[in-house]
Design goal:
single chain; alpha/beta; Rossmann fold; globular; TIGR00725 family protein; LOG_family_nucleotidases; LDcluster4
């Protein structure tokens, strides 16, 4: 069974966050990981497009009760009608969680993943969480770039030789 990686981030993402999310999706797909996301625009739509560009599978777990507003790059859409409670489904379905940028929704997913324990939790940019002593909370990896985020999530290097006709790995 392939590894499942949740990629979380804001629906209101600028060009840089979208670029990073697209690259994370592409790299995860190259490693045969299934991407799970919130299924809408911004980071979620960019990670879906990146994974699909490399032939990957992307599951969108929507907060709404229907498929309205779902990102076009999704392989499957799961409308939940649960609002932000769907964040728990996204995190619990994942073998690792990557959070790109920050919003209150993505911070809730980060907290749920951290609380769940036993899985890699990686941040690429965004707000930092500190303990009462002012130290960064332990157990959250902080990535420098998309390759580092995927490496930390999967636990191994992400450099693969090109195999496709268009240089896709």
């Amino acid at each position: 069974m392939p590894i499942q990686v949740a990629v979380c981030g804001p629906s209101d993402a600028g060009a840089e966050l979208s670029r990073q999310a697209h690259e994370v999706g592409r790299l995860l797909a190259q490693r045969s990981a299934v991407v799970i996301c919130g299924g809408y625009s911004g980071v979620m739509g960019a990670v879906a497009a990146g994974a699909r560009s490399a032939g990957g599978m992307v599951i969108g777990v929507l907060s709404g009760a229907d498929r309205s507003g779902a990102a076009p790059g999704l392989s499957a859409v799961l409308p939940t009608g649960m609002g932000q409670a769907r964040n728990n489904i996204i995190v619990n379905a994942a073998d690792a969680v990557i959070v790109i940028g920050s919003s209150w929704g993505s911070v809730s997913e980060l907290a749920l993943a951290k609380r769940r324990g036993g899985i890699p939790v990686v941040q690429l940019g965004g707000w930092r969480i500190y303990d009462a002593d002012g130290r960064p909370v332990e157990g959250i990896g902080h990535a420098d770039d998309p390759e580092d985020a995927v490496r930390q999530a999967l636990g191994s290097p992400v450099h693969l030789p090109a195999t496709g006709p268009n240089g896709l790995r």
